[in-house]
Amino acid sequence: MCPKTTVHLVQLDPIWENHAANHAKVKKLVADANPQPGALIVLPEMFSTGFSMNLPLTAEPENGPTEQFLREIAAQHQCCVIGGLVTKTPDGRGWNQSLAIAPDGTLLTRYTKNRPFSLGGEDEAHHAGTKVNVFDWQGLKIALLICYDLRFPELARDAVRVGAEVLIYIAAWPVKRIQHWITLLQARAIENLCYVIGVNRCGTDPLFTYTGRSLVVDPHGIIIADAAEQERVISAQLDPAIVRDWRSQFPALKDAGLQS
Q: What CATH number corresponds to the domain at position 43?
């Protein structure tokens, strides 16, 4: 039987386009949360800069400063750390990515946002990813997704098709559509019989206001942790048995052709 895994959701109010200040904020928030070794620590989309399309400032090479910062946090707390950044592409644009880093610095997965947010001009700055993948942590199969991806249920289905038991969405989701965020996170959990974690930013930037509402939703669609609107860290436990027992008892994934 797989043990339960603790997840820590870091709901951050990023300082606009200021890598160093945001790294310092995250470092303190995580230290104050005192995560136990083996936990998951999840940071929002583009946590180092906010959701800026200023590529000369946001885009970094692979293994750049923000990726190295994620490795530092993972090593310091002996946890798996997940966070969002923009990686440079050869043509001078970027990839909006979510990385998972193991305590020893191993890159467990690098996911590229499949659906850039065209309403905000992201499709002009960032190339779209083309696939969803899964990595293993503490006996759980986890898929990473990013913000606008939440509106596209086929991406969650693709993740479940390759074994995902936990979907983690990192985001910069504004207050104007926050009810959509809550409802869609619950919907993805219900229809895929899995845990869904949404880590959103809070605060303001030059364009939008964000009210956080980072959530952990269980496989029945029940919210088991809610960060409300302030900058803070919240925690919850993920129990693999709850996913597997429910999938065994209720045949929706089998009937959809996603499970044998």
A: 3.60.110.10
- Residue 24: Cβ within 10 Å count: 13
Q: Cβ neighbours of residue 137 under 8 Å, at least 6 residues apart?
A: 5, 40, 80, 100, 108
Q: Choosing from 79, 80, 122, 147, which is the catalytic residue?
A: 147
Predicted structure pTM score: 0.98
Domain that holds residue 237: 5-255
Query: Which residue in the list 25, 79, 80, 113 is annotated as catalytic?
Result: 113
Q: What is the tens place of the pLDDT at every residue in 199-253?
A: 999 999 999 999 999 999 999 999 999 999 999 999 999 999 999 999 999 999 9
Average pLDDT, the chain: 97
Q: What is the mean pLDDT of residues 86-92?
A: 95
Active site residue 45: yes
- Residue type for 61, please? P
Of 216, 9, 237, nearest in space to 138 by CA? 237
Q: Which residues pair with 64 in a beta bridge?
A: none
**Cα separation of 219 and 100, whole Å?**
22
Whether pLDDT at 260 is above 80: no
Written as one letter, the residue type at 9 is L
Q: Is beta strand 202-204 parallel, antiparallel or unpaired with respect to 195-200?
A: unpaired
Would residue 45 count as lying in a domain? Answer: yes
**Confidence at residue 94, expressed as pLDDT on a 0 to 100 scale:** 98
- Catalytic pick from 45, 67, 122, 165? 45
Residue 2 known to be catalytic: no
Counting DSSP H helices and E strands in the chain, the numbers are: 8, 16
> Is 147 known to be catalytic?
yes
For residue 104, list its beta bridge partners. Answer: none
91 SS3 class: coil
Q: Is 260 inside any structural domain?
A: no
